[in-house]
Amino acid sequence: MPLSLSDLDGDYLMSSTTTDSFAVLLRRVAPELLPPTTVDTSVPELLRHGRTVLAIRYNGGVVVAADLGSALARRLGQTDVDRILGTDDRCVIGVAGAAGLAGEMIRLFQAEVDHLEKIQGQRISMDGCAVRLSSLVRSHGTMMAQGLAVTPLLAGWDELAHRGRIFSYDGTGGQTEEHSHACVGSGALFASDVLNEDYRTGMDRDESVALAIRALDTAISDDSPSSLSGPDLSRGLYPTVACVDSHGVTRMPTEEVAVLTKRLVDQVTAESDREEAQ
Questions:
Q1: Which fold has domain 45-272?
Q2: What residues have CB less than 8 Å from 193, skipping those under 6 apart?
Q3: Fewer CB within 10 Å, N or C, the chain?
Q4: So where are the chain's domains?
Q5: InterPro entries this protein is in (predicted)?
Q6: Which tens digit of pLDDT belongs to each residue from 107-144?
């Protein structure tokens, strides 16, 4: 029978058997608060994702960008689902998959990092954050088998290495450090083509943001589940963009994203007109 939080006396909390994993602790005292490990996938809308999230390293940090909208097919018109969530002042997670489950995973990850730092009495490293997120992704392996994946990208500023870093994950929790860029979601294949072709070492922040927007635009155009939530100048709908550098996590204002998006749209329109003229 699970213990109540009040049953955890000081002797337990101070004992050498106290786990440094908040998820493990929560599983013992209040398992009902953990994110579900199985869902009823008889609801077909849950199996339709249609979101794209990407991260790009630049000279001085990392850009993380995501398209807009809900993962549920019946709510594809919803454009206020935020898929880039800050975990602290140096890391962000971009998530593709069911928005509710992704949000629960990230909140648990935030608590996991806070708990570990309090237990150890020092700040957890970027590598430590990556390992902790890996264990949480692994705990959702059953959902992966059911076809409902919550796939994150972890990006942040490594204070020890003094550089931006990106970690991607597979459905089993396996982590890979990406040294240039990474992309997850239903449009990842299309966005990756743009990133592989146009990415270059030494790009600055503005160049990386422009590349991220172009890659998302390509993904949205080619990936039919995403087609209803792409950039829309008339309605003021633009990708969500965050930058992480030595100064911390900065959410790029919509106005700046709008300028870059309009520039991209004008460029694509001009190229299309030239091709038609020929």
A1: Glutamine Phosphoribosylpyrophosphate, subunit 1, domain 1 (3.60.20)
A2: 218
A3: N
A4: 45-272
A5: Ntn_hydrolases_N (IPR029055), Proteasome_sua/b (IPR001353), Proteasome_suB-type (IPR023333), PSB_actinobac (IPR022483)
A6: 778 888 887 888 888 888 899 889 888 887 877 655 45
